[in-house]
Design a protein that fits this description.
Length: 156
């Protein structure tokens, strides 16, 4: 199981201006500022075989309702795993995922001839930790009008 935890949606509601000629002394008045809005949810993704996978639709299925409540904000995805990672890449051509995996397997080899000392959980465990460290376990994506604001071909 891969647990994507602490999907945190946040937005700072803009300052409400009472008039264009507001007294400067009231700018820091707490009654004229709305509180930030937050939402946090933990979801669990089904286990996937080793490789590069699109998980955007699975995550959106779980957090789409929460996203719709944000006009402007940030979605922060954090993965609770040390041998998996999150990255944004192209979604149009499957070859992108295949080429990415080929590249990663070339620069981080696995198997009995690989130079890794940490093999207690199998010969593929240390390469998975290294690959995870290369991409990282978190993403922050802008929210605009209740949707993730990503480019046409971007997915994670």
């Amino acid at each position: 199981m891969m647990q994507v935890s602490s999907i945190c949606l946040a937005a700072k509601v803009p300052v409400r201006v009472k008039s264009l000629q507001t007294n400067p002394a009231t700018i820091n008045d707490p009654t004229s500022i709305a509180a930030p809005k937050w939402s946090q949810k933990t979801i669990t993704l089904p286990p996937l075989k080793r490789g590069c996978h699109l998980v955007t639709s699975k995550i959106l299925k779980e957090v789409g309702q929460e996203l719709s409540g944000f006009k402007c904000g940030l979605a922060h995805l954090f993965l609770h795993h040390t041998s998996a990672s999150l990255t944004i890449n192209e979604n149009y051509d499957y070859d992108v995922r295949d080429d990415t995996e080929t590249f990663l397997n070339q620069i981080v080899p696995e198997g009995p001839s690989a130079p890794w000392k940490h093999t207690l959980e199998g010969p593929d465990d240390m390469p998975a930790h290294i690959k995870s460290s290369m991409f990282g376990c978190a993403l922050t994506i802008p929210i605009t009008n209740g949707k993730l604001n990503m480019g046409t071909w971007q997915v994670y």
